[in-house]
Amino acid sequence: MTSVVAPRPTSESARLRDYAEAAIAAMPTEQVVLVGHSAGGVVASEIARLAPERVAGFLAVSAIVPPAGGSFVSAMPAPNRWVLGAAMRFAGTRPPESAIRKNLASGLDGEIVDRLISDFTPEPQAYYRDHLSPGTWSAPRGYVMSTTDKELPPALQKRFAANLGGEWTRELTTGHVPMLEDPAGLATAITAFVDTLPRKTTGPE
């Protein structure tokens, strides 16, 4: 199973669609399984709408998955979405270091947390505000929940899992970044999801 990390645009004016199109351009010619984590769930949702014939499956990992026509911001419950929208407008999209340590990096060791903070790259406003393109897709889908997540609480993850649809789910006892806290557990979950799909896939994208 081959795994590929999708490239991301570097322009400060990049739109959500630019992120999706950059990933689509880098895909192999065969169908792929999308694995979207956190805000990457919005990008994966856009990819599935723009190129449904290229997608063999979609696995969300503690991910934001808006309903059809929604955005990252609009997918949040009120009043969170109003507070988030205002905060990004006035303070930008990079959260304070204290918030990263308390929420995003909860469950991680100090050295990893420091690296996460130093490597954190804020995305453009449009990444969070742009709405998903029209379109439908029918590939199998699943959701991996991180049950001790302080960044995206389990109740909110259940809401996004319902938006995504599909019956396949797994739980990991981790915070928001299971790929750093329990990489073996996440790898097992991804493999288990891929194993449920028809045998014409190439692996995660």
TrEMBL record:
Domain of life, per lineage: Bacteria
Domain AB hydrolase-1: 8-188
InterPro entries: AB_hydrolase_1 (IPR000073), AB_hydrolase_fold (IPR029058), Sec-Metab_Biosynth_Hydrolase (IPR052897)
Pfam assignment, any one: Abhydrolase_6
PANTHER family given in the database record: AB HYDROLASE-1 DOMAIN-CONTAINING PROTEIN-RELATED, ESTERASE_LIPASE_THIOESTERASE DOMAIN-CONTAINING PROTEIN
Name used for this protein in its record: AB hydrolase-1 domain-containing protein
Species for this entry: Brevibacterium metallidurans
